[in-house]
Known about the structure:
Distance between the termini: 53 Å
Number of strands: 20
Shape: globular
Helix content: 10-25%
Structural class: alpha+beta
Strand content: 15-25%
Radius of gyration: 22 Å
CATH class of the domain at 72-295 and 354-404 and 455-508: Alpha Beta
Low-confidence stretches: 1-32, 35-77
Amino acid sequence: MKNRLESLAWVGALLVAAASCGDDGGGNDESGTNPGTSLTATITATDGSGVTGDESDGDSTGDKLDIGGGNSGPGGGCGGSDLGCTDKIDLLFVIDNSGTMAVEQANLARNFPLLVQQLENLTDSNGEAVNPDVQIMVTNTDYGNPLCTAFEPKGYDPSEGAPVTTPCTDRIQDFTGLGSNPDSVPTACTDTCISGAAPEGDPFVAFDSQGDNIPDTITEADINADGVPDSPVAQALGCLGPQGINGCGYESPLENMLQALNPDATWNQGARPFLRPDALLAIAVITDEADCSVQNYDIMTDATYQEIEPGSGMPESSSAICWNAGVSCQGPDANGVYSDCTASETPNTLQPTSRYVNYLVNTLRESQKKEVVMLGILGVPEVTAHNPMAPFEPTAGGVADLEYRNWRDGEYTGMAGGGDILPDEFLDGVTAADKQFDFGIGPGCTGQDMAGAFTGQAIPPVRIKEVCESLNIENDDGTTDVRCCIESICDDDFSAAIQCLAGIIGEAIVVPG
């Protein structure tokens, strides 16, 4: 495969923003640095290949839908000057497609009807109806990694941020995991994708008060077993959203997010782009592990960032690299607890979080006057209270209860100070040392479904958390305009997360003037 070289260039306050290079196979560089690009106010590919995966040239028929018909907020036009004054919403979902995500993908898909309902009934910061013009694009977290290349199924290519445009029933093989005895969970797709719905002509779902881009052959059907028929738009999201469980376990949600927003990408070009200049941008990131957006793939075999494998007694590669190279903490103390954990800015390891903050805040918000909001469904404790008023952000639990610590031996009981090992793993002899080798840090949360069955554990989200929280706007009077909502991926129902996403979108939309 081709070597892909990094080229970072700073122009004033704008950071080099995104890597858009493919390769001649599965999108993975076997050695050296992850491709970067040179950015002034935009993102430009270095090798001309741009993107991989399912693509669209942006020119589509879309005869059913009148998209992009003006930039008018409630009560009149914005004149292109007021931040957040728009009725257009571009919503990007970045969904983890690694082997532990079947339950979480199904949870999210069941809540897509609620998302559509919330957006259709959206009100702005003054409580006035918006009647929004919405585009929703879906990608996954697989940017490719040399440690994953050998395990990629035949015909599989990492998305590198390209939109996924086919219903999951056409990708059902993706719901069988990797390895010699893989899990197979096709129901994570088929439970909600009952009609095979997908958008016509566009690499995203689009709808407004005049119609949508879903084929007329798709009629209302209940996809989440709540007894209420769901719209063709909700059905299409229920089919596009499930991503499968055979993606790379070194997840790169931040880099894939950036590549999806690359203005030079084909899906952001043409007569019908996803990323519209006069639209509010909303981003939803759903993952149960630490971001591993790699700048230099040499770290994947560097013992500096590896943990000791208990069987061999030697440092070996695992997902712990993502934490060790990406996060800096003080400690641990005598109880194995760390403090002051922040994203590491060590050069030539993971991409710096400033790469993403500067693009979202400096380029899109400050220079292009686009409002930007984000939802993270991540490895934090479950939220125990929300603001009862818009934007419905968490007020207790969640990030406020997040603790960074090493794994603890013993079977998990849910008691403070107890063990972390889930019952099935505990019976198999799994120890804290095994889990520390796997991840480098203890769990941010442990999930159980309504029947009490364990659904998995998730790693704390330092890097994504910092990018999300950078979008909050601190006002001169000491108040904060909430533009980031972080919910727990261990929650058995993502409806509160969906309500918070709609809430921060609505609060970010202002009346003209």
